């Protein structure tokens, strides 16, 4: 079994997680500033909500093990991109790209990788826009670049992903005899949500043209 209690009490581990939490705060503030500015200029908010999380010790351990690395500070920093996670929930599909572009334009943020699962959804129906970013955080000992994963998605995409995640992990979908049927149902739900997202986007456009 994984020595979770031991890891949690280790000073270096706590200090590293504190650094990731600070990176999350920096990015969250940037997103809130963009949303505030947008609401003053255009009288609406592209961001519906922001959720953040630090990857749990057990998940960090498992992912490193899966990749064939030991549980060390260097490996956590160098091999994992999603210890710090920020999920941005937008109202409309075009808001996702607006938020992503405005974030990417900021000169202290470095974009390490982009995965556009909206343009190219996963075979199971998962849709979301993923950015792996690096942001400098200023600590007493100097500036440290910290990595984080920013997932940007609509309310609909988030609704689907949250429920699919719950079903997949909690109910051990893989061992269920109706696995294939459930996967097909989930894919159908993803298609329905895509259609609704597109329809909402069109309605927004029509209203915009009227104004
Ligand atoms: P959790 O619990 O959300 O942290 P890579 O980084 O390229 O080596 P990885 O990690 O598979 O490969 O990257 P990817 O595909 O960008 O996915 C990372 C995260 O996206 C996942 O983190 C989920 O949060 C989300 N995600 C990806 N695919 C799915 C999916 O099919 N369903 C749902 N619900 N979420 C998905 P974690 O660590 O898996 O989980």
From TrEMBL:
Superkingdom of this protein's organism: Bacteria
SMART domains: RelA_SpoT
CDD domains from the UniProt entry: NT_Rel-Spo_like
Recorded metabolic or biological pathway in which this protein acts: Purine metabolism; ppGpp biosynthesis; ppGpp from GTP: step 1/2
Residues of the RelA/SpoT domain: 52-175
InterPro entries to which the protein is assigned, alphabetical: GTP_Pyrophosphokinase, NT_sf, RelA_SpoT
Protein name per its UniProtKB record: GTP pyrophosphokinase family protein
Species for this entry: Blautia hominis
